[in-house]
């Protein structure tokens, strides 16, 4: 039986991991950009674009380790004695980076912060950031959010007021909530007045699957339903289940064998942030949603979470070995064999909060629909070794089972 390591997630993005030639060249390119613009009127902004699993986070981990090593050891470097921070607006991923800091000589846990915390400390004059590295920048708030103690209009705008150089990674297909609504066009409009550069990563590193399956996921999550590919790679396990409980049992077996295997689900089931347990029931399947994780260990690495159902809020940004996904009531197959998205069945009430800059009813519906599809994209791309699917909708489930290209 597999004994799950408590630092499996850190091993996926550790700066000790080898980089590909492209990734190494990108790190060097960003370092050169940073030193070239460090003493100019800022901010200078470097954006790394890339889909889920294209290696964005490991590039940032290497980059930040080199930045801090030079800042703290290289007295003749332009980076000497600079004050630099790594930001991530996701508490579970923040735990991973702080764990990494504990194993690197020149990284400190305090180097890794939530954006709101750094913004508030900067406003009070307690910190004076030179370089900011932002992972999952598509999670930055783009409107005020009193729940998160952010009272500005846009977190990136607030950060740009103080930093000299900002390096961020961005994927518009991982935008999940109205309060962090972004598109590439909105980002590019924001940074266009400043010195900026960009790079796009395209190679899929996470999934040991064929490009056919990645293309199918991308099409599915843009509401283009096509038959599942037959050939998905000799090292990848793709299955569609008629029974959610049977899928759960398969995931449990994979977890015993290789660890880091979990069942996850889309919204569409009872879920309230009231501290209680809320269950997903699909026939024989009956498990609670993920509980708030107060520990320093990421949710997926806690042994007991094999008996919970993960969500985008615990799984986004993480590698799982095998992922079993329940596609909930918000998605179905219509009479024309097209993928239908039902906004009224989405139970994540936080996702659709109103924005003052979105007033066109047609655009609002389109954005909400894409947020739901984005959440599916995030979940489908979690599995390194395998993807197991179960659909709540009978017609969609039978289509996925029977149609293979």
From TrEMBL:
<dbReference type="Pfam" id="PF09848">
    <property type="entry name" value="SLFN-g3_helicase"/>
</dbReference>
<dbReference type="InterPro" id="IPR018647">
    <property type="entry name" value="SLFN_3-like_DNA/RNA_helicase"/>
</dbReference>
<dbReference type="InterPro" id="IPR027417">
    <property type="entry name" value="P-loop_NTPase"/>
</dbReference>
<feature type="domain" description="Schlafen group 3-like DNA/RNA helicase">
    <location>
        <begin position="44"/>
        <end position="393"/>
    </location>
</feature>
<protein>
    <submittedName>
        <fullName>DUF2075 domain-containing protein</fullName>
    </submittedName>
</protein>
């Amino acid at each position: 039986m597999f004994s799950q390591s408590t630092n499996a997630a850190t091993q996926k993005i550790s700066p000790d991991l080898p980089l590909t030639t492209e990734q190494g060249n990108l790190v060097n390119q960003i370092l050169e950009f940073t030193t070239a613009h460090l003493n100019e009127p800022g901010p200078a902004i470097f954006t790394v674009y890339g889909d889920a699993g294209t290696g964005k986070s490991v590039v940032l981990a290497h980059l930040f380790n080199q930045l801090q090593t030079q800042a703290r050891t290289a007295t003749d470097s332009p980076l000497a004695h600079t004050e630099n921070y790594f930001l991530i607006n996701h508490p579970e991923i923040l735990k991973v980076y702080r764990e990494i800091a504990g194993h690197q000589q020149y990284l400190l846990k305090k180097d890794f912060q939530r954006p709101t915390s750094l913004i508030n400390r900067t406003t009070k004059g307690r910190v004076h950031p030179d370089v900011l590295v932002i992972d999952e920048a598509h999670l930055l708030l783009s409107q005020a959010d009193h729940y998160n103690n952010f009272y500005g209009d846009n977190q990136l705008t607030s950060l740009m007021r103080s930093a000299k150089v900002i390096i961020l990674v961005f994927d518009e297909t991982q935008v999940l909530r109205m309060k962090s609504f972004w598109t590439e066009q909105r980002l590019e409009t924001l940074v266009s007045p400043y010195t900026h550069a960009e790079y796009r990563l395209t190679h899929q590193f996470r999934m040991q699957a064929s490009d056919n399956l990645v293309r199918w996921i991308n099409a599915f999550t843009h509401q283009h339903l096509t038959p599942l590919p037959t050939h998905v790679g000799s090292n990848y396990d793709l299955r569609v289940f008629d029974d959610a409980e049977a899928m759960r049992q398969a995931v449990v077996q994979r977890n015993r064998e290789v660890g880091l295997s979990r069942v996850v689900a889309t919204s569409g089931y009872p879920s309230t942030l009231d501290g209680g347990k809320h269950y997903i029931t699909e026939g024989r399947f009956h498990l609670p949603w993920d509980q708030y994780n107060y520990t320093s260990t990421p949710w997926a690495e806690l042994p007991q979470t094999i008996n919970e159902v993960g969500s985008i809020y615990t799984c986004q940004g993480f590698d799982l070995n095998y992922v079993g996904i329940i596609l909930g009531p918000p998605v179905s197959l219509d009479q024309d064999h097209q993928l239908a998205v039902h906004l009224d069945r989405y139970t994540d009430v936080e996702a659709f909060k109103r924005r003052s800059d979105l007033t066109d009813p047609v655009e609002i519906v389109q954005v909400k629909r894409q947020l739901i599809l984005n959440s599916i994209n995030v979940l489908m791309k979690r599995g390194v070794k395998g993807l197991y699917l179960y659909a709540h909708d009978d017609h969609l489930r039978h289509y996925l089972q029977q149609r293979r290209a």
